[in-house]
């Protein structure tokens, strides 16, 4: 079976095909392929039922995908706790790239969450805060799609080391595509420099990994790039990729 066979089979049987059937074959065929080829396969296979997510730490994934699939939906989770620089990066992305940025909001505003669950939930129960403000809103937003593209990389953390370029997202019952899973930080830096990719200005102020403002700190030279996320809380993932 070739990738063409997989694509044709999916298009012919989209109403009844178990999407898990294509994941293993695609992951094998596409392992080691250039990121753009992986994205091209995903766009041809899933069409308008494909989206990508972005935290607006940079626009690398947006740049890559928009070159293959102009007008693609980009889901941005507006948690209510973002740095102003992150919101500014989102606004710049809307102006610069041929994409459709969709703001995803939690069911409660920050004020409503403080009223219902008490203030500073992010410090008392960060897992619950991340679930309410990131995971649950994204789960709702992904429902219309068959597949989503993520920018996670294997070298970011031990929890991501086993990521495949195409995976079955069992939690959401859909396909997850990780086109830059095998990239290193050097690959990222080179692509950004070579293509003039927009990046969040916080990167210039020692924030190599950017999340919500209350749970993100600057990172000292030599520290792990993700050590500034949920520092001191014994937490390494928001839950989206678990």
UniProtKB/TrEMBL annotation:
<feature type="binding site">
    <location>
        <position position="215"/>
    </location>
    <ligand>
        <name>[4Fe-4S] cluster</name>
    </ligand>
</feature>
<feature type="domain" description="Phosphoadenosine phosphosulphate reductase">
    <location>
        <begin position="56"/>
        <end position="217"/>
    </location>
</feature>
<dbReference type="InterPro" id="IPR014729">
    <property type="entry name" value="Rossmann-like_a/b/a_fold"/>
</dbReference>
<dbReference type="GO" id="GO:0046872">
    <property type="term" value="F:metal ion binding"/>
</dbReference>
<dbReference type="GO" id="GO:0051539">
    <property type="term" value="F:4 iron, 4 sulfur cluster binding"/>
</dbReference>
<feature type="binding site">
    <location>
        <position position="130"/>
    </location>
    <ligand>
        <name>[4Fe-4S] cluster</name>
    </ligand>
</feature>
<dbReference type="GO" id="GO:0005737">
    <property type="term" value="C:cytoplasm"/>
</dbReference>
<dbReference type="InterPro" id="IPR004511">
    <property type="entry name" value="PAPS/APS_Rdtase"/>
</dbReference>
<comment type="similarity">
    <text>Belongs to the PAPS reductase family. CysH subfamily.</text>
</comment>
<comment type="pathway">
    <text>Sulfur metabolism; hydrogen sulfide biosynthesis; sulfite from sulfate.</text>
</comment>
<dbReference type="GO" id="GO:0004604">
    <property type="term" value="F:phosphoadenylyl-sulfate reductase (thioredoxin) activity"/>
</dbReference>
<keyword id="KW-0963">Cytoplasm</keyword>
<dbReference type="Pfam" id="PF01507">
    <property type="entry name" value="PAPS_reduct"/>
</dbReference>
<keyword id="KW-0479">Metal-binding</keyword>
<protein>
    <recommendedName>
        <fullName>Adenosine 5'-phosphosulfate reductase</fullName>
        <ecNumber>1.8.4.10</ecNumber>
    </recommendedName>
</protein>
<feature type="binding site">
    <location>
        <position position="129"/>
    </location>
    <ligand>
        <name>[4Fe-4S] cluster</name>
    </ligand>
</feature>
<keyword id="KW-0408">Iron</keyword>
<dbReference type="InterPro" id="IPR002500">
    <property type="entry name" value="PAPS_reduct_dom"/>
</dbReference>
<feature type="active site" description="Nucleophile; cysteine thiosulfonate intermediate">
    <location>
        <position position="238"/>
    </location>
</feature>
<keyword id="KW-0560">Oxidoreductase</keyword>
<dbReference type="GO" id="GO:0070814">
    <property type="term" value="P:hydrogen sulfide biosynthetic process"/>
</dbReference>
<dbReference type="GO" id="GO:0019379">
    <property type="term" value="P:sulfate assimilation, phosphoadenylyl sulfate reduction by phosphoadenylyl-sulfate reductase (thioredoxin)"/>
</dbReference>
<keyword id="KW-0411">Iron-sulfur</keyword>
<feature type="binding site">
    <location>
        <position position="212"/>
    </location>
    <ligand>
        <name>[4Fe-4S] cluster</name>
    </ligand>
</feature>
<comment type="function">
    <text>Catalyzes the formation of sulfite from adenosine 5'-phosphosulfate (APS) using thioredoxin as an electron donor.</text>
</comment>
<dbReference type="GO" id="GO:0043866">
    <property type="term" value="F:adenylyl-sulfate reductase (thioredoxin) activity"/>
</dbReference>
């Amino acid at each position: 079976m070739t990738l063409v066979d997989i694509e044709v089979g999916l298009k012919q049987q989209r109403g009844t095909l178990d999407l898990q059937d294509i994941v293993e074959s695609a992951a094998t065929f596409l392992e080691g392929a250039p990121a753009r080829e992986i994205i091209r396969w995903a766009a041809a296979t899933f069409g308008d039922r494909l989206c990508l997510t972005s935290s607006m730490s940079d626009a690398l994934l947006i740049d890559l995908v928009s070159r293959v699939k102009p007008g693609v939906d980009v889901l941005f989770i507006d948690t209510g706790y973002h740095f102003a620089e992150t919101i500014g990066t989102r606004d710049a992305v809307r102006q610069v790239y041929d994409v459709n940025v969709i703001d995803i909001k939690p069911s409660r505003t920050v004020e409503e969450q403080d009223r219902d669950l008490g203030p500073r939930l992010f410090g008392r129960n960060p897992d619950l805060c991340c679930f309410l403000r990131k995971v649950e809103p994204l789960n709702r937003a992904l429902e219309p799609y068959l597949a989503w593209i993520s920018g996670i990389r294997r070298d970011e953390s031990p929890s991501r080391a086993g990521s495949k370029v195409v995976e079955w997202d069992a939690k959401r019952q859909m396909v997850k595509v990780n086109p830059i899973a095998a990239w290193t930080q050097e690959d990222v830096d080179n692509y950004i420099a070579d293509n003039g990719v927009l990046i969040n200005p916080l990167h210039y102020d020692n924030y190599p990994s950017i999340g919500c403002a209350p749970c993100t700190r600057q990172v000292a030279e030599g520290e792990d790039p993700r050590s500034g996320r949920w520092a001191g809380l014994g937490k390494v993932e928001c839950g989206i990729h678990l």
